[in-house]
Amino acid sequence: MTADTHKRDFAENRRLPGIALLAAGIGVISTLAAFVLLNLIHLFTNLFFFGELSFAERSPAQNTLGAWVVLVPVAGGLIVGLMARFGSEKIRGHGIPEAILFGKSRMSPKVAILKPLSSGIVIGSGGPFGAEGPIIMTGGALGSLIAQCVRVSAAERKTLLVAGAAAGMTAVFGTPVAAVLLAVELLLFEWRPRSFLPVALACAVAGFARGALFGAGPLFPLETVPPGALSLFTCVIAGLLSGALAAGLSAALYKTEDLFGKLRIHWMWWPALGGLVVGIGGFIEPRALGVGYDVIGDLLHLHLALQVALALLLVKAVMWVVALGSGTSGGVLAPLLMLGAGLGVVLSHLMPGNDPALWPLVCMAATLGATLGAPLTAIVFAFGLTHDSNALLPLLAATLVAHGFATVVMRRSIMTEKIARRGYHIYREYGVDPLERHYVDEVMTRDVETIDAHSTIDETLARYFGPLQTHRAYPVIRDGVLTGVIDRTALERMSTAPDREGAATTLLELMQTRASVVALPCETCRLVATRLAVHGLERMPVVDDVNTRRIVGIVSRSDLVKPSLAHFDEEHKKERFRRLGTRAAKRRLSPLRRTG
Predict the structure, then answer these.
(1) Against a cut of 0.70, is the pTM above it?
(2) How many domains is the chain partitioned into structurally?
(3) pLDDT tens-digit series, residues 159-210
Protein backbone atom coordinates (compact mmCIF):
# COMPACT_ATOMS: atom_id res chain seq x y z
CA MET A 1 0.00 0.00 0.00
CA THR A 2 1.50 3.34 -1.04
CA ALA A 3 1.44 6.47 1.07
CA ASP A 4 -1.02 8.02 -1.38
CA THR A 5 -3.73 5.58 -0.31
CA HIS A 6 -3.80 7.23 3.11
CA LYS A 7 -4.65 10.64 1.65
CA ARG A 8 -8.19 11.92 2.18
CA ASP A 9 -10.47 14.04 0.00
CA PHE A 10 -11.14 16.30 3.00
CA ALA A 11 -9.13 17.21 6.07
CA GLU A 12 -9.77 14.97 9.07
CA ASN A 13 -11.53 16.72 11.95
CA ARG A 14 -12.41 14.70 15.04
CA ARG A 15 -13.99 17.76 16.69
CA LEU A 16 -16.64 18.03 13.98
CA PRO A 17 -19.41 16.12 15.87
CA GLY A 18 -19.05 18.38 18.92
CA ILE A 19 -19.08 21.56 16.85
CA ALA A 20 -22.10 20.29 14.91
CA LEU A 21 -23.97 19.61 18.16
CA LEU A 22 -23.27 23.16 19.35
CA ALA A 23 -24.44 24.49 15.99
CA ALA A 24 -27.74 22.60 16.33
CA GLY A 25 -28.39 24.29 19.68
CA ILE A 26 -27.51 27.65 18.16
CA GLY A 27 -30.06 26.97 15.42
CA VAL A 28 -32.82 26.72 18.05
CA ILE A 29 -31.66 29.86 19.86
CA SER A 30 -31.47 31.86 16.62
CA THR A 31 -35.02 30.82 15.73
CA LEU A 32 -36.23 32.10 19.09
CA ALA A 33 -34.28 35.33 18.50
CA ALA A 34 -36.02 35.73 15.14
CA PHE A 35 -39.39 35.31 16.84
CA VAL A 36 -38.48 37.99 19.38
CA LEU A 37 -37.22 40.39 16.69
CA LEU A 38 -40.30 40.07 14.50
CA ASN A 39 -42.52 40.71 17.49
CA LEU A 40 -40.42 43.74 18.43
CA ILE A 41 -41.01 45.11 14.93
CA HIS A 42 -44.75 44.54 15.31
CA LEU A 43 -44.71 46.20 18.74
CA PHE A 44 -42.85 49.31 17.58
CA THR A 45 -44.93 49.56 14.39
CA ASN A 46 -48.11 49.66 16.44
CA LEU A 47 -46.56 52.07 18.90
CA PHE A 48 -45.15 54.53 16.37
CA PHE A 49 -47.94 54.53 13.78
CA PHE A 50 -51.07 53.58 15.72
CA GLY A 51 -50.30 54.56 19.31
CA GLU A 52 -51.06 51.06 20.61
CA LEU A 53 -49.13 48.52 22.70
CA SER A 54 -49.83 45.49 20.57
CA PHE A 55 -47.94 42.65 18.91
CA ALA A 56 -50.48 42.34 16.10
CA GLU A 57 -49.00 42.39 12.61
CA ARG A 58 -50.04 45.63 10.87
CA SER A 59 -48.60 47.47 7.91
CA PRO A 60 -47.43 51.08 8.47
CA ALA A 61 -49.04 51.90 5.13
CA GLN A 62 -52.42 51.76 6.93
CA ASN A 63 -51.56 54.70 9.19
CA THR A 64 -53.80 57.78 9.40
CA LEU A 65 -51.14 60.26 10.56
CA GLY A 66 -51.20 62.33 7.40
CA ALA A 67 -48.21 64.68 7.08
CA TRP A 68 -47.14 63.86 10.64
CA VAL A 69 -45.85 60.54 9.29
CA VAL A 70 -42.73 62.42 8.15
CA LEU A 71 -41.58 62.80 11.76
CA VAL A 72 -41.98 59.15 12.77
CA PRO A 73 -38.83 57.80 11.01
CA VAL A 74 -36.93 60.85 12.27
CA ALA A 75 -37.76 59.87 15.86
CA GLY A 76 -36.70 56.28 15.21
CA GLY A 77 -33.43 57.40 13.63
CA LEU A 78 -32.68 59.71 16.53
CA ILE A 79 -33.20 56.91 19.07
CA VAL A 80 -30.96 54.51 17.14
CA GLY A 81 -28.26 57.17 16.73
CA LEU A 82 -28.18 57.60 20.50
CA MET A 83 -28.07 53.82 21.01
CA ALA A 84 -25.15 53.49 18.57
CA ARG A 85 -23.13 56.28 20.18
CA PHE A 86 -23.64 55.34 23.82
CA GLY A 87 -24.23 51.61 23.36
CA SER A 88 -22.28 50.02 20.51
CA GLU A 89 -21.32 51.49 17.16
CA LYS A 90 -21.39 47.98 15.67
CA ILE A 91 -25.18 48.07 15.44
CA ARG A 92 -24.88 50.55 12.57
CA GLY A 93 -25.16 49.42 8.97
CA HIS A 94 -25.68 45.98 7.50
CA GLY A 95 -23.82 42.68 7.57
CA ILE A 96 -21.10 40.98 9.58
CA PRO A 97 -18.37 39.75 7.18
CA GLU A 98 -15.78 42.08 8.73
CA ALA A 99 -16.35 40.55 12.17
CA ILE A 100 -15.77 37.11 10.70
CA LEU A 101 -12.69 37.95 8.68
CA PHE A 102 -10.85 40.42 10.86
CA GLY A 103 -12.25 40.17 14.38
CA LYS A 104 -11.60 36.43 14.93
CA SER A 105 -15.40 36.09 15.07
CA ARG A 106 -15.64 37.68 18.51
CA MET A 107 -18.78 39.74 18.98
CA SER A 108 -19.90 41.45 22.15
CA PRO A 109 -23.05 40.82 24.24
CA LYS A 110 -24.06 44.43 23.57
CA VAL A 111 -24.48 43.65 19.88
CA ALA A 112 -26.66 40.63 20.62
CA ILE A 113 -29.01 42.84 22.66
CA LEU A 114 -28.84 46.23 20.94
CA LYS A 115 -28.96 44.97 17.34
CA PRO A 116 -32.49 43.48 17.47
CA LEU A 117 -33.71 46.32 19.68
CA SER A 118 -32.35 49.04 17.38
CA SER A 119 -33.61 47.22 14.28
CA GLY A 120 -37.06 46.84 15.80
CA ILE A 121 -37.13 50.60 16.45
CA VAL A 122 -35.86 51.54 12.98
CA ILE A 123 -38.15 49.19 11.05
CA GLY A 124 -41.06 49.78 13.41
CA SER A 125 -40.74 53.53 12.82
CA GLY A 126 -40.98 53.01 9.06
CA GLY A 127 -37.40 52.21 8.08
CA PRO A 128 -37.40 50.60 4.61
CA PHE A 129 -35.59 47.45 5.74
CA GLY A 130 -36.25 43.79 6.27
CA ALA A 131 -35.86 41.83 9.47
CA GLU A 132 -33.42 39.37 7.95
CA GLY A 133 -30.32 41.59 8.15
CA PRO A 134 -30.67 42.31 11.87
CA ILE A 135 -31.55 38.71 12.71
CA ILE A 136 -28.57 37.49 10.69
CA MET A 137 -26.33 39.72 12.77
CA THR A 138 -28.15 38.89 16.00
CA GLY A 139 -27.98 35.16 15.33
CA GLY A 140 -24.30 35.55 14.49
CA ALA A 141 -23.68 37.44 17.72
CA LEU A 142 -25.43 34.72 19.72
CA GLY A 143 -23.39 32.04 17.99
CA SER A 144 -20.19 33.96 18.70
CA LEU A 145 -21.11 34.42 22.37
CA ILE A 146 -21.80 30.72 22.83
CA ALA A 147 -18.54 29.89 21.07
CA GLN A 148 -16.66 32.21 23.42
CA CYS A 149 -17.90 30.18 26.38
CA VAL A 150 -16.24 26.98 25.19
CA ARG A 151 -12.68 26.15 24.19
CA VAL A 152 -12.64 26.41 20.39
CA SER A 153 -10.31 27.75 17.71
CA ALA A 154 -10.97 30.95 15.79
CA ALA A 155 -12.03 28.88 12.76
CA GLU A 156 -14.53 26.90 14.85
CA ARG A 157 -15.82 30.11 16.40
CA LYS A 158 -16.37 31.49 12.90
CA THR A 159 -18.36 28.38 12.03
CA LEU A 160 -20.63 28.80 15.05
CA LEU A 161 -21.09 32.51 14.36
CA VAL A 162 -22.13 31.78 10.77
CA ALA A 163 -24.37 28.93 11.97
CA GLY A 164 -26.30 31.42 14.09
CA ALA A 165 -26.51 33.93 11.26
CA ALA A 166 -27.73 31.40 8.67
CA ALA A 167 -30.20 29.87 11.13
CA GLY A 168 -31.63 33.34 11.73
CA MET A 169 -32.21 33.82 8.02
CA THR A 170 -33.87 30.40 7.85
CA ALA A 171 -36.20 31.34 10.68
CA VAL A 172 -37.32 34.55 8.96
CA PHE A 173 -37.80 33.25 5.41
CA GLY A 174 -38.08 29.47 5.77
CA THR A 175 -35.34 28.91 3.19
CA PRO A 176 -32.71 26.66 4.83
CA VAL A 177 -30.90 25.66 1.63
CA ALA A 178 -30.58 29.27 0.51
CA ALA A 179 -29.31 30.20 3.96
CA VAL A 180 -26.57 27.57 3.68
CA LEU A 181 -25.57 28.93 0.28
CA LEU A 182 -25.59 32.47 1.67
CA ALA A 183 -23.19 31.30 4.37
CA VAL A 184 -20.86 29.77 1.80
CA GLU A 185 -20.98 32.67 -0.68
CA LEU A 186 -20.92 35.60 1.74
CA LEU A 187 -19.89 34.57 5.26
CA LEU A 188 -17.69 31.47 5.47
CA PHE A 189 -15.38 32.35 2.56
CA GLU A 190 -14.67 28.64 2.19
CA TRP A 191 -16.35 25.35 1.33
CA ARG A 192 -15.11 22.75 3.80
CA PRO A 193 -16.96 20.01 5.73
CA ARG A 194 -15.68 21.36 9.06
CA SER A 195 -17.70 24.56 8.51
CA PHE A 196 -20.34 23.56 5.97
CA LEU A 197 -21.82 20.66 7.95
CA PRO A 198 -22.42 22.51 11.26
CA VAL A 199 -23.94 25.48 9.42
CA ALA A 200 -26.20 23.21 7.37
CA LEU A 201 -27.30 21.38 10.51
CA ALA A 202 -28.12 24.67 12.26
CA CYS A 203 -30.23 25.72 9.26
CA ALA A 204 -32.04 22.37 9.20
CA VAL A 205 -32.83 22.63 12.91
CA ALA A 206 -34.02 26.24 12.45
CA GLY A 207 -36.19 25.14 9.54
CA PHE A 208 -37.97 22.54 11.66
CA ALA A 209 -38.25 24.89 14.66
CA ARG A 210 -39.67 27.63 12.44
CA GLY A 211 -42.74 25.54 11.73
CA ALA A 212 -43.72 25.62 15.41
CA LEU A 213 -43.41 29.42 15.66
CA PHE A 214 -44.30 30.78 12.23
CA GLY A 215 -46.04 27.94 10.43
CA ALA A 216 -44.93 25.90 7.45
CA GLY A 217 -45.12 26.61 3.74
CA PRO A 218 -43.48 29.19 1.46
CA LEU A 219 -43.62 32.88 2.34
CA PHE A 220 -44.84 33.90 -1.14
CA PRO A 221 -46.47 30.84 -2.77
CA LEU A 222 -46.51 31.20 -6.53
CA GLU A 223 -46.94 29.04 -9.60
CA THR A 224 -46.11 30.26 -13.10
CA VAL A 225 -46.55 28.47 -16.41
CA PRO A 226 -43.59 26.55 -17.86
CA PRO A 227 -41.44 28.97 -19.91
CA GLY A 228 -41.08 28.62 -23.66
CA ALA A 229 -37.91 28.83 -25.71
CA LEU A 230 -38.51 32.52 -26.48
CA SER A 231 -38.39 33.29 -22.76
CA LEU A 232 -34.62 33.02 -22.91
CA PHE A 233 -34.49 36.35 -24.75
CA THR A 234 -36.50 38.01 -21.99
CA CYS A 235 -34.30 36.36 -19.36
CA VAL A 236 -31.24 37.99 -20.89
CA ILE A 237 -32.94 41.39 -20.88
CA ALA A 238 -34.19 40.88 -17.32
CA GLY A 239 -30.71 39.87 -16.22
CA LEU A 240 -29.05 42.91 -17.82
CA LEU A 241 -31.61 45.31 -16.35
CA SER A 242 -31.33 43.68 -12.93
CA GLY A 243 -27.55 43.85 -13.07
CA ALA A 244 -27.75 47.53 -14.00
CA LEU A 245 -30.16 48.15 -11.11
CA ALA A 246 -27.81 46.33 -8.71
CA ALA A 247 -24.80 48.34 -9.87
CA GLY A 248 -26.76 51.60 -9.63
CA LEU A 249 -28.02 50.84 -6.13
CA SER A 250 -24.55 49.90 -4.87
CA ALA A 251 -22.93 53.01 -6.36
CA ALA A 252 -25.69 55.25 -5.01
CA LEU A 253 -25.45 53.71 -1.54
CA TYR A 254 -21.77 54.35 -1.09
CA LYS A 255 -21.95 57.75 -2.74
CA THR A 256 -24.60 58.63 -0.18
CA GLU A 257 -22.42 57.25 2.60
CA ASP A 258 -19.59 59.49 1.38
CA LEU A 259 -21.88 62.52 1.42
CA PHE A 260 -22.92 61.79 5.00
CA GLY A 261 -19.25 61.44 5.89
CA LYS A 262 -18.62 65.01 4.73
CA LEU A 263 -21.23 66.46 7.09
CA ARG A 264 -19.82 68.53 9.94
CA ILE A 265 -22.11 66.98 12.51
CA HIS A 266 -21.56 63.86 14.59
CA TRP A 267 -22.62 60.58 12.95
CA MET A 268 -25.07 60.07 15.81
CA TRP A 269 -27.41 62.53 14.05
CA TRP A 270 -27.15 60.97 10.61
CA PRO A 271 -29.90 58.33 11.09
CA ALA A 272 -32.32 61.13 12.02
CA LEU A 273 -31.47 62.95 8.77
CA GLY A 274 -31.93 59.72 6.86
CA GLY A 275 -35.22 59.24 8.70
CA LEU A 276 -36.41 62.59 7.36
CA VAL A 277 -36.00 61.32 3.78
CA VAL A 278 -37.75 58.08 4.76
CA GLY A 279 -40.63 60.05 6.25
CA ILE A 280 -41.06 62.17 3.12
CA GLY A 281 -40.96 59.05 0.97
CA GLY A 282 -43.48 57.36 3.26
CA PHE A 283 -45.81 60.33 2.92
CA ILE A 284 -45.55 60.10 -0.91
CA GLU A 285 -45.83 56.29 -1.09
CA PRO A 286 -46.88 54.68 2.23
CA ARG A 287 -46.30 51.15 0.87
CA ALA A 288 -42.56 51.84 0.89
CA LEU A 289 -42.50 52.06 4.70
CA GLY A 290 -41.38 49.19 6.90
CA VAL A 291 -40.55 45.59 6.03
CA GLY A 292 -43.04 45.36 3.18
CA TYR A 293 -43.42 41.58 2.89
CA ASP A 294 -47.07 42.13 1.98
CA VAL A 295 -46.04 44.53 -0.78
CA ILE A 296 -43.55 42.00 -2.15
CA GLY A 297 -46.38 39.48 -2.32
CA ASP A 298 -48.58 41.97 -4.17
CA LEU A 299 -45.80 42.66 -6.68
CA LEU A 300 -45.16 38.96 -7.29
CA HIS A 301 -48.85 38.35 -7.91
CA LEU A 302 -49.21 41.48 -10.11
CA HIS A 303 -51.76 43.05 -7.77
CA LEU A 304 -50.27 46.53 -8.25
CA ALA A 305 -50.71 48.69 -11.32
CA LEU A 306 -47.76 49.73 -13.45
CA GLN A 307 -47.84 53.34 -12.21
CA VAL A 308 -47.86 52.18 -8.57
CA ALA A 309 -44.98 49.76 -9.19
CA LEU A 310 -42.92 52.52 -10.82
CA ALA A 311 -43.57 54.94 -7.97
CA LEU A 312 -42.80 52.26 -5.41
CA LEU A 313 -39.57 51.32 -7.20
CA LEU A 314 -38.33 54.90 -7.26
CA VAL A 315 -39.41 55.92 -3.75
CA LYS A 316 -38.22 52.69 -2.09
CA ALA A 317 -34.84 52.94 -3.79
CA VAL A 318 -34.27 56.51 -2.60
CA MET A 319 -35.49 55.76 0.93
CA TRP A 320 -33.39 52.64 1.27
CA VAL A 321 -30.20 54.15 -0.13
CA VAL A 322 -30.40 57.27 2.03
CA ALA A 323 -31.43 55.44 5.19
CA LEU A 324 -28.74 52.78 4.88
CA GLY A 325 -26.13 55.35 3.84
CA SER A 326 -26.90 57.30 7.01
CA GLY A 327 -25.59 54.39 9.08
CA THR A 328 -28.84 53.24 10.63
CA SER A 329 -29.52 49.59 11.47
CA GLY A 330 -31.24 47.49 8.83
CA GLY A 331 -31.03 44.67 6.31
CA VAL A 332 -30.67 44.52 2.55
CA LEU A 333 -32.51 41.37 1.49
CA ALA A 334 -36.15 42.45 1.75
CA PRO A 335 -35.57 45.88 0.12
CA LEU A 336 -33.72 44.24 -2.76
CA LEU A 337 -36.55 41.74 -3.16
CA MET A 338 -39.06 44.58 -3.40
CA LEU A 339 -36.96 46.64 -5.79
CA GLY A 340 -36.28 43.66 -8.04
CA ALA A 341 -39.93 42.63 -8.03
CA GLY A 342 -40.91 46.21 -8.91
CA LEU A 343 -38.55 46.11 -11.88
CA GLY A 344 -40.12 42.80 -12.90
CA VAL A 345 -43.62 44.30 -12.83
CA VAL A 346 -42.46 47.04 -15.19
CA LEU A 347 -40.81 44.47 -17.46
CA SER A 348 -43.93 42.29 -17.51
CA HIS A 349 -45.78 45.16 -19.23
CA LEU A 350 -43.04 45.64 -21.81
CA MET A 351 -42.42 42.04 -22.88
CA PRO A 352 -45.51 40.54 -24.54
CA GLY A 353 -45.79 36.84 -25.24
CA ASN A 354 -44.51 35.63 -21.85
CA ASP A 355 -46.20 34.80 -18.59
CA PRO A 356 -46.32 38.23 -16.87
CA ALA A 357 -46.21 36.69 -13.38
CA LEU A 358 -42.78 35.19 -14.07
CA TRP A 359 -40.78 38.38 -14.38
CA PRO A 360 -41.25 39.95 -10.93
CA LEU A 361 -39.87 36.72 -9.44
CA VAL A 362 -37.02 36.50 -11.97
CA CYS A 363 -35.95 40.15 -11.57
CA MET A 364 -36.24 39.85 -7.79
CA ALA A 365 -33.72 36.98 -7.72
CA ALA A 366 -31.46 38.51 -10.37
CA THR A 367 -31.25 41.86 -8.55
CA LEU A 368 -30.51 40.15 -5.26
CA GLY A 369 -27.85 37.89 -6.74
CA ALA A 370 -26.10 40.69 -8.62
CA THR A 371 -26.13 43.09 -5.67
CA LEU A 372 -24.79 40.59 -3.14
CA GLY A 373 -22.53 38.75 -5.57
CA ALA A 374 -24.27 35.52 -4.55
CA PRO A 375 -26.11 34.09 -7.59
CA LEU A 376 -26.65 30.56 -6.24
CA THR A 377 -28.12 31.95 -3.04
CA ALA A 378 -30.50 34.17 -5.01
CA ILE A 379 -31.72 31.36 -7.28
CA VAL A 380 -32.40 28.90 -4.48
CA PHE A 381 -33.76 31.70 -2.28
CA ALA A 382 -36.39 32.67 -4.87
CA PHE A 383 -37.41 29.03 -5.23
CA GLY A 384 -37.61 28.59 -1.46
CA LEU A 385 -39.81 31.68 -1.10
CA THR A 386 -42.30 30.57 -3.77
CA HIS A 387 -41.81 26.81 -4.39
CA ASP A 388 -42.31 27.62 -8.08
CA SER A 389 -40.38 24.88 -9.87
CA ASN A 390 -41.45 26.15 -13.31
CA ALA A 391 -39.41 29.30 -12.73
CA LEU A 392 -36.11 27.55 -12.00
CA LEU A 393 -34.74 27.73 -15.54
CA PRO A 394 -35.57 31.44 -16.04
CA LEU A 395 -34.19 32.14 -12.55
CA LEU A 396 -30.95 30.43 -13.48
CA ALA A 397 -30.56 32.26 -16.80
CA ALA A 398 -31.48 35.77 -15.63
CA THR A 399 -29.57 35.62 -12.35
CA LEU A 400 -26.38 34.42 -14.00
CA VAL A 401 -26.63 37.15 -16.64
CA ALA A 402 -27.13 39.75 -13.92
CA HIS A 403 -24.23 38.36 -11.91
CA GLY A 404 -21.99 38.39 -14.97
CA PHE A 405 -22.96 41.98 -15.72
CA ALA A 406 -22.27 43.06 -12.14
CA THR A 407 -18.95 41.18 -12.06
CA VAL A 408 -17.76 43.11 -15.10
CA VAL A 409 -19.10 46.49 -14.02
CA MET A 410 -18.60 46.38 -10.23
CA ARG A 411 -15.25 45.76 -8.57
CA ARG A 412 -16.91 44.66 -5.33
CA SER A 413 -20.34 43.74 -4.05
CA ILE A 414 -22.44 45.84 -1.71
CA MET A 415 -21.19 43.71 1.20
CA THR A 416 -17.46 43.64 0.45
CA GLU A 417 -17.28 47.32 -0.52
CA LYS A 418 -17.90 48.22 3.11
CA ILE A 419 -14.94 46.08 4.16
CA ALA A 420 -12.71 47.47 1.41
CA ARG A 421 -13.41 51.00 2.65
CA ARG A 422 -11.88 49.98 5.97
CA GLY A 423 -8.63 49.09 4.26
CA TYR A 424 -9.14 45.33 3.82
CA HIS A 425 -9.13 43.27 0.65
CA ILE A 426 -11.59 40.45 0.01
CA TYR A 427 -10.98 37.91 -2.74
CA ARG A 428 -14.03 35.74 -3.24
CA GLU A 429 -12.94 33.24 -5.89
CA TYR A 430 -12.68 29.81 -4.30
CA GLY A 431 -10.15 27.29 -5.55
CA VAL A 432 -7.97 24.47 -4.32
CA ASP A 433 -4.63 25.70 -2.96
CA PRO A 434 -1.90 24.66 -5.44
CA LEU A 435 0.24 23.62 -2.47
CA GLU A 436 -2.44 21.08 -1.53
CA ARG A 437 -2.26 19.43 -4.95
CA HIS A 438 1.48 18.71 -4.95
CA TYR A 439 3.69 16.52 -2.78
CA VAL A 440 7.06 17.31 -1.27
CA ASP A 441 8.90 14.80 -3.48
CA GLU A 442 7.78 16.80 -6.53
CA VAL A 443 9.49 20.02 -5.44
CA MET A 444 12.30 19.02 -3.05
CA THR A 445 16.00 19.22 -3.88
CA ARG A 446 17.41 15.69 -4.02
CA ASP A 447 21.11 16.57 -4.15
CA VAL A 448 21.65 17.53 -0.51
CA GLU A 449 24.88 18.87 0.96
CA THR A 450 25.24 17.39 4.44
CA ILE A 451 27.69 17.55 7.35
CA ASP A 452 29.11 14.51 9.10
CA ALA A 453 27.94 14.27 12.72
CA HIS A 454 31.50 13.61 13.97
CA SER A 455 32.76 17.02 12.82
CA THR A 456 33.58 19.50 15.56
CA ILE A 457 32.06 22.95 15.84
CA ASP A 458 35.32 24.70 14.81
CA GLU A 459 35.74 22.44 11.79
CA THR A 460 32.17 23.00 10.70
CA LEU A 461 32.43 26.79 11.02
CA ALA A 462 35.63 26.90 9.02
CA ARG A 463 34.50 24.57 6.24
CA TYR A 464 30.81 25.27 5.78
CA PHE A 465 30.18 28.72 7.22
CA GLY A 466 33.20 30.59 5.93
CA PRO A 467 33.43 33.00 2.98
CA LEU A 468 32.18 30.33 0.58
CA GLN A 469 29.04 29.51 2.57
CA THR A 470 26.25 28.37 0.24
CA HIS A 471 23.39 27.61 2.67
CA ARG A 472 22.08 29.06 5.90
CA ALA A 473 21.70 25.63 7.53
CA TYR A 474 22.83 22.09 6.79
CA PRO A 475 21.48 18.65 7.70
CA VAL A 476 23.75 16.68 10.02
CA ILE A 477 23.95 12.94 9.31
CA ARG A 478 25.51 9.87 10.84
CA ASP A 479 25.83 6.89 8.53
CA GLY A 480 23.17 8.35 6.24
CA VAL A 481 20.72 8.87 9.10
CA LEU A 482 19.61 12.39 9.97
CA THR A 483 20.52 13.56 13.46
CA GLY A 484 19.49 17.20 13.11
CA VAL A 485 20.00 20.53 11.34
CA ILE A 486 22.66 23.07 12.27
CA ASP A 487 22.98 26.78 11.44
CA ARG A 488 25.61 29.46 11.91
CA THR A 489 23.91 31.11 14.90
CA ALA A 490 23.97 27.99 17.06
CA LEU A 491 27.57 27.21 16.16
CA GLU A 492 28.86 30.70 16.83
CA ARG A 493 27.13 30.79 20.20
CA MET A 494 28.96 27.62 21.23
CA SER A 495 32.34 28.63 19.81
CA THR A 496 32.37 32.04 21.52
CA ALA A 497 31.50 30.69 24.95
CA PRO A 498 33.90 32.00 27.68
CA ASP A 499 35.33 28.57 28.47
CA ARG A 500 35.70 27.68 24.73
CA GLU A 501 35.13 24.04 25.63
CA GLY A 502 32.16 23.92 23.34
CA ALA A 503 34.28 24.60 20.26
CA ALA A 504 35.67 21.06 20.37
CA THR A 505 32.26 19.50 20.81
CA THR A 506 31.14 17.29 17.94
CA LEU A 507 27.90 17.96 16.14
CA LEU A 508 26.62 14.55 17.27
CA GLU A 509 26.87 15.66 20.90
CA LEU A 510 25.22 18.96 20.07
CA MET A 511 22.36 17.31 18.19
CA GLN A 512 21.44 15.22 21.22
CA THR A 513 19.96 18.35 22.82
CA ARG A 514 18.31 19.74 19.68
CA ALA A 515 15.08 18.32 18.25
CA SER A 516 14.83 18.48 14.47
CA VAL A 517 11.72 19.03 12.37
CA VAL A 518 11.45 16.92 9.22
CA ALA A 519 9.21 16.44 6.21
CA LEU A 520 8.17 13.26 4.40
CA PRO A 521 8.11 12.87 0.60
CA CYS A 522 4.43 11.90 0.66
CA GLU A 523 3.31 15.00 2.58
CA THR A 524 1.62 17.86 0.76
CA CYS A 525 3.45 21.10 0.14
CA ARG A 526 0.76 22.95 2.05
CA LEU A 527 1.34 20.89 5.19
CA VAL A 528 5.08 21.44 5.02
CA ALA A 529 4.69 25.16 4.29
CA THR A 530 2.63 25.48 7.46
CA ARG A 531 5.27 23.56 9.42
CA LEU A 532 7.99 25.88 8.17
CA ALA A 533 5.96 28.92 9.17
CA VAL A 534 5.08 27.57 12.62
CA HIS A 535 8.70 26.75 13.47
CA GLY A 536 10.16 29.83 11.75
CA LEU A 537 12.38 27.76 9.42
CA GLU A 538 13.74 28.48 5.96
CA ARG A 539 14.36 24.86 4.92
CA MET A 540 13.61 21.40 6.21
CA PRO A 541 15.23 17.99 5.59
CA VAL A 542 13.11 15.32 3.92
CA VAL A 543 13.46 11.77 5.25
CA ASP A 544 12.14 8.54 3.82
CA ASP A 545 10.48 7.53 7.10
CA VAL A 546 10.11 8.97 10.59
CA ASN A 547 11.69 5.84 12.06
CA THR A 548 14.67 5.23 9.76
CA ARG A 549 15.22 9.01 9.23
CA ARG A 550 17.33 8.45 6.14
CA ILE A 551 17.63 11.74 4.32
CA VAL A 552 16.35 11.79 0.73
CA GLY A 553 16.18 15.54 0.05
CA ILE A 554 15.61 18.98 1.41
CA VAL A 555 12.71 21.39 0.88
CA SER A 556 12.96 25.16 1.23
CA ARG A 557 10.55 28.05 1.05
CA SER A 558 11.72 28.77 -2.48
CA ASP A 559 10.82 25.21 -3.50
CA LEU A 560 7.25 25.80 -2.35
CA VAL A 561 6.86 28.50 -4.99
CA LYS A 562 7.02 25.87 -7.74
CA PRO A 563 3.36 24.73 -7.46
CA SER A 564 2.24 28.35 -7.78
CA LEU A 565 4.28 28.65 -10.97
CA ALA A 566 2.64 25.54 -12.37
CA HIS A 567 -0.76 26.95 -11.43
CA PHE A 568 0.10 30.22 -13.18
CA ASP A 569 0.96 28.31 -16.38
CA GLU A 570 -2.36 26.48 -16.23
CA GLU A 571 -4.26 29.75 -15.87
CA HIS A 572 -2.38 31.97 -18.32
CA LYS A 573 -0.30 29.93 -20.76
CA LYS A 574 -2.21 29.58 -24.04
CA GLU A 575 -1.57 26.49 -26.16
CA ARG A 576 -3.04 24.87 -29.27
CA PHE A 577 -2.65 21.16 -29.91
CA ARG A 578 -4.66 20.75 -33.13
CA ARG A 579 -4.84 22.71 -36.35
CA LEU A 580 -7.42 22.69 -39.13
CA GLY A 581 -6.45 20.09 -41.69
CA THR A 582 -7.45 21.59 -45.05
CA ARG A 583 -5.19 23.86 -47.04
CA ALA A 584 -7.94 26.46 -47.32
CA ALA A 585 -8.29 26.55 -43.58
CA LYS A 586 -4.53 26.91 -43.20
CA ARG A 587 -4.56 29.80 -45.65
CA ARG A 588 -7.31 31.46 -43.63
CA LEU A 589 -5.28 31.07 -40.44
CA SER A 590 -1.97 32.21 -41.95
CA PRO A 591 -2.60 35.98 -41.43
CA LEU A 592 -3.25 35.28 -37.77
CA ARG A 593 0.02 33.41 -37.50
CA ARG A 594 1.91 36.21 -39.22
CA THR A 595 0.46 38.88 -36.89
CA GLY A 596 1.16 36.77 -33.80
Answers:
(1) yes
(2) 3
(3) 999 999 899 989 989 999 999 999 888 888 778 888 899 999 999 999 999 9
Average pLDDT value for the chain: 84
Spatial distance between the Cα atoms of 386 and 394, rounded to a whole number of angstroms = 14
pLDDT at 365 over 90: yes
522 or 230, greater pLDDT: 522
- CA nearest neighbour of 4 among 548, 564, 524, 442: 524
Helices (H), 421-555: 440-443, 457-464, 488-495, 507-511, 525-535
Phi and psi at residue 560, in whole multiples of 5°?
-75, -5
Of 234, 417, 246, give the one whose Cα is nearest residue 340: 246
Closest CA to 133 of 98, 163, 94, 176: 94
Q: Is residue 156 part of a domain?
A: yes
Domain that holds residue 157: 16-214
Say if 518 falls within a structural domain. yes
Whether residue 440 is contained in a domain is answered as yes
pLDDT tens per residue across span 526-567: 899 999 989 888 888 999 988 888 999 999 888 888 888 877
State the DSSP string of 320-341: HHHHHHTT-B--SHHHHHHHHH
Reduce the DSSP state of residue 197 to 3 states and report it: helix
Beta strands at 451-452 and 473-478: parallel, antiparallel or unpaired = parallel
